[in-house]
Write a structure and sequence with these properties.
The protein has 83 residues and is mostly helical. The chain has 2 helices and no strands. The longest helix has 38 residues.
């Protein structure tokens, strides 16, 4: 079986089942487009979030539970509750 015969057989099968072939191609195109769109939206959203975070600047206040510094004021700079 040579390449010309293989392509002729494939073309005859596609021509015999036109609707099935069109629906298959449509499904493939929609699937590829949806993957491209999803990846593009994800990357765009990631870049937008990174831009927003970088635009906040270096004057950020980070609040975390507990602390490594001590203070005389109850509840400030320590993990112990006020009396």
């Amino acid at each position: 079986m040579n390449w010309a015969e293989i392509f002729r057989t494939a073309f005859d099968a596609v021509r015999a089942n036109r609707l099935r072939s069109v629906l298959t191609m449509l499904g493939i195109v929609i699937g590829i487009a949806s993957v491209i769109l999803t990846v593009g939206l994800g990357q765009g959203a990631q870049e937008e979030v990174e831009d927003q975070i970088s635009s906040l600047g270096s004057n950020l206040l980070i609040v975390a539970p507990g602390s490594t510094t001590s203070s005389d004021a109850p509840g400030v700079g320590s993990a112990r509750p006020p009396p």
